[in-house]
Design a protein that fits this description.
Ribosomal Protein L25, Chain P; Alpha/beta knot; 11 strands; 249 residues; 5-stranded mixed β-sheet; elongated; 6 helices; alpha/beta; 2 domains
């Protein structure tokens, strides 16, 4: 099994080099010591989730919530190209967290929650902020589980107009739609830049939304012969694109 990943604050790994002893404490230190029960000599990876990573071994365990890491190597991972963003309409129940989890594990680079017209779920006020926090926490934990150095940021909830602005600046923009005439598997993809995919809600993308997105440069594409749930379509599409762009090669 590959070494477990623990998250440090952004910038905390600046100036860290082979031979440095780094102290991991707080919630992550507690998880490493009391939950994962890491011991001296075991391998560990530290990351800020922004592409920086420090690899090393546990040098000392201090109490229940702190350990020292003897760093053996450091790595700065560039953002992969092309960059894949999924605009995810709000699903019902906890399916939003499922979508974020599987998309993160698959390799999506950014996630945008979208308040589509046909969404049953609504993010408003304190409840909306709590739901957004759950999505972000899910992306963080899934990033750790999948041993990523880049965790996908989860944006603030966007309106249809804001999503259209995002699509207009993409190198390739697509709306997953069961009535799309072109398979996503045959679309011409860019080697660099932003690929932005829109995944609609359970009730589908409305004709009005589809027209707005088409005006912004996004065409409708079908994913396959079967109709997937909104919580799984983004993951399936991302896997297809990661394979076709060579990022999984």
């Amino acid at each position: 099994m590959t070494a477990p990943v623990f998250v440090v604050e952004e910038g905390a790994l600046t100036g860290v080099f082979p031979g440095t002893v780094f102290s991991l404490d707080g919630p992550e230190g507690r998880h490493a010591v009391s939950v994962r029960r890491l011991r001296v000599g075991e391998e560990i990876v530290l990351t800020d989730g922004e592409g920086a990573g420090a690899y090393g071994t546990v040098a000392a365990v201090e109490g229940k919530d702190r350990l020292d890491v003897a760093v053996t190597s450091v790595r700065s991972e560039p953002m992969p190209q092309p960059r894949i963003t999924v605009v995810q309409a709000l699903p019902k129940g906890d399916r939003g967290e499922l979508a974020v989890e599987t998309m993160t594990e698959t390799g999506v680079d950014a996630i945008v929650p979208w308040a589509a017209a046909r969404c049953v779920t609504q993010w408003k006020g304190e409840r909306g902020q709590k739901s957004l926090g759950k999505w972000r926490a899910t992306a963080r934990e899934a990033g750790k589980q999948s041993r990523r150095l880049h965790f996908p940021p989860v944006a603030e909830l966007m309106t249809t107009k804001q999503v259209a602005n995002l699509l207009s600046g993409a190198a390739f923009a697509a709306v997953l739609h069961e009535e799309g005439s072109t398979p996503l598997a045959t679309a011409e993809l860019p080697a660099v830049g932003d690929i932005v995919l829109v995944v609609g809600p359970e009730g589908g993308v409305s004709p009005e939304e589809l027209a707005v997105f088409e005006e912004a440069g996004a065409q409708p594409y079908r994913l396959g012969p079967s109709v997937l749930r909104t919580s799984t379509a983004g993951t399936a599409a991302a896997a297809l694109l990661l394979g076709r762009t060579g990022r999984w090669s």
